[in-house]
Amino acid sequence: MNFDGIWTPVVTPFAQDGSIQLDTLRKVVDTLIDQGVHGLIIGGTTGEYYALSKEERKQVFDSVAGHAKGRIPIMAGINATTTEDSLELGQHAKAAGFDAILVAAPYYCQPAQDELLTHVRCVDDALDMPIMLYNFPDRTGVPMTLELIEALRDRPNVQAIKESTGSIERMHALANDHADQLQLSCGMDDQVLEFFAWGARSWVAGASNFLAPEHVALYQACVVEQDLVAGRELAARLLPMLNLLEQGGKFCQYIKYGCELAGLPVGPAHRPLLPLNETEKASFQRTYDALLQHRG
């Protein structure tokens, strides 16, 4: 499967009581498709999958697949605390018509590398779908080591990796030593230009929920046109926002506030995450307004 392009990890809209707003979710999907993103990820961290029950996650899968299938590639995030739950979610996503799955280390339980390898192989055996690995040890507590990546060479379904460690050294290793094995996807937004310079052709970008045109333009310049000078100018405009998101400590809240400012309110983040305070909103809006000044 070709994972090129901007993949948006779609937000999950909530009402104030925490219930999922499927009508709003479908509007978000329509807007992203209209704005030219290349794929959608449903059930990622930005979608607050960890705050949903399995049945709610399945409901979201069904809603998006029924609405978007055939219009844009869709990937299902199936991470859970157990292999069994990941398989159940993956089987549901496959039946719903998803094109690929996003596979991270099960969180909280912190499997050892041999256990994580067994988990990925089990998912592959059971689902037989294109897989994008998701390496984000700050969230899961467990890295996907280069030795584990190497051990998956015999798995043709393991086709891409979203790399979110922030380590340039590791990004270099993936780009240089595993380019024949895995498509490299930027998962560290404030390093996107570096990823594209080193051959990545994919970006899983939370801020594309509300800044899709800017993300698509940066991809077009760096990957399609191979113009890193123009790409650097575009990245420089985006960088204050990307820095705020990566370093501000309230990623989901900022993404959802960005959607509100973009004219598509998606409700609050799920508790225990709390709304932004007025100072945080003002800082975000200044950054957002400065960015929009460059929009044609």
TrEMBL record:
Family annotation (InterPro entries): Aldolase_TIM (IPR013785), DapA-like (IPR002220), Schiff_base-form_aldolases_AS (IPR020625)
PROSITE patterns for the chain: DHDPS_2 (PS00666)
EC code: 4.1.3.3, 4.2.1.41, 4.3.3.7
Keywords: Ligase, Lyase, Schiff base
GO molecular function: 4-hydroxy-tetrahydrodipicolinate synthase activity; 5-dehydro-4-deoxyglucarate dehydratase activity; ligase activity; N-acetylneuraminate lyase activity
Entries under Pfam families matching the protein: DHDPS
The keyword DNA-binding belongs to this UniProt entry's keyword annotation: no
Matching Gene3D superfamilies: Aldolase class I (3.20.20.70)
PANTHER family: 4-HYDROXY-2-OXOGLUTARATE ALDOLASE, MITOCHONDRIAL, DIHYDRODIPICOLINATE SYNTHASE
Family: Belongs to the DapA family.
UniProt name for this protein: Dihydrodipicolinate synthase family protein
Species of origin: Halomonas kalidii
Record lineage: Bacteria, Pseudomonadati, Pseudomonadota, Gammaproteobacteria, Oceanospirillales
